[in-house]
């Protein structure tokens, strides 16, 4: 093969590679930026200020919560809400009862019951009963009964039982549902839906789109880096051949 033919072949190869490289970077930018826009529209970060949700969420941890309507909330969800009766700041608690439920504690085995069904709660702090104090409540229609996972260190529906709504809050008070932990790094992960609530009427909620969002961002970053790396690699190989 003549030198001119080799140069034309190399030129076509470099041109095709440059086109593919550009396409990879462009697609990567769409995925990367699109993922962040999608996340901004769907999720918001929160810092949990207290130890009331330990060990599920430690004090000072950052969580990612999906913006949802209160009507979408199910038992077992961890929600961010704000209710004037509870205070002026957003709070993070777990939903254990919805409208019409009879919530009580504790059985002889120390378990919480919902409509008479004992609930296995492996997420609780410690190995004692589900609540250090006994209680009973019927949740009004359109309301949610909320408890912290650290039952001996949580100001939740139990301390508001004498309120007009028996310690519950309106579904409309919910701003978001926690889908994942984002900080500290050692605790990063998806929030699991408790299996014990899935057998009750209404079941548990489905996770939001946080996994496809994360996949889009990671895939976009890989395409951008891979496409951007083509140019320097191709030039280096060209110099080596020369």
Automatic annotation (TrEMBL):
InterPro entries: LexA/Signal_pep-like_sf, Pept_S26A_signal_pept_1, Peptidase_S26
EC numbers, comma separated: 3.4.21.89
Membrane topology note: Single-pass type II membrane protein
GO MF term list: signal peptidase activity
Residues that span the membrane, as ranges: 20-41, 213-233
Localization: Cell membrane; Membrane
Substrates-to-products reaction catalysed: Cleavage of hydrophobic, N-terminal signal or leader sequences from secreted and periplasmic proteins
Enzyme class at the top of the EC tree: hydrolase
Ranges for domain Peptidase S26: 30-183
CDD domains tied to this protein: S26_SPase_I
Alphabetic keyword roster: Hydrolase, Membrane, Protease, Transmembrane, Transmembrane helix
Similarity comment: family membership: Belongs to the peptidase S26 family.
Name of this protein: Signal peptidase I
Source organism of this protein record: Streptomyces bugieae
Gene name of the encoded protein: lepB
């Amino acid at each position: 093969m003549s030198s001119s033919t080799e140069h034309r072949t190399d030129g076509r190869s470099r041109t095709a590679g440059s086109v593919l490289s550009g396409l990879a970077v462009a697609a990567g930018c769409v995925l990367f930026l699109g993922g962040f826009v999608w996340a901004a529209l769907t999720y918001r970060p929160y810092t949990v200020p207290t130890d009331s949700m330990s060990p599920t969420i430690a004090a000072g941890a950052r969580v990612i919560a999906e913006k949802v309507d209160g009507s979408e909330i199910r038992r077992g969800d961890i929600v961010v809400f704000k209710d004037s009766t509870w205070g002026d700041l957003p709070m993070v608690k777990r939903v254990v009862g919805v409208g019409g439920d009879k919530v009580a504690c504790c059985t002889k085995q120390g378990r919480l019951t919902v409509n008479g069904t004992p609930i296995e709660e492996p997420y609780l702090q410690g190995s004692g009963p589900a609540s250090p104090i006994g209680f009973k409540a019927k949740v009004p229609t359109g309301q949610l009964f909320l408890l912290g996972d650290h039952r001996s260190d949580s100001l939740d529906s139990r301390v508001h039982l004498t309120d007009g709504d028996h310690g519950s809050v309106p579904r409309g008070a919910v701003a978001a549902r926690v889908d994942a932990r984002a900080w500290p790094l050692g605790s990063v992960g998806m929030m699991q839906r408790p299996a014990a609530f899935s057998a009750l009427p209404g079941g548990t909620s489905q996770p939001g789109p946080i996994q496809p969002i994360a996949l889009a961002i990671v895939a976009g970053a890989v395409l951008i880096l891979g496409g951007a790396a083509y140019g320097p690699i191709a030039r280096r190989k060209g110099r080596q051949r020369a």
